[in-house]
Amino acid sequence: MAARLIDGKARAAALRAAVAERVAAFPGRKPGLAVVLVGEDPASSVYVRSKNRACAEAGMRGFEHRLPDTVAQADLLALVDRLNADPEVDGILVQLPLPKHIDANKVITRIDPDKDVDGFHPVNAGRLATGLPGFVPCTPFGCLMLIRDVRERLAGLEAVVVGRSNIVGKPMAQLLIAESCTVTVAHSRTRDLGLHLARADVVVAAVGVPKLIRGDQLKAGATVIDVGINRTDVGLVGDVDFDSALPVAGAITPVPGGVGPMTIACLLRNTLVSAGRREGVEIDEGGF
Ligand SMILES: Nc1nc2c(c(=O)[nH]1)N[C@@H](CN(C=O)c1ccc(C(=O)N[C@@H](CCC(=O)O)C(=O)O)cc1)CN2
Question: Which residue numbers delimit the Tetrahydrofolate dehydrogenase/cyclohydrolase catalytic domain (predicted)?
Answer without folding.
Answer: 6-118
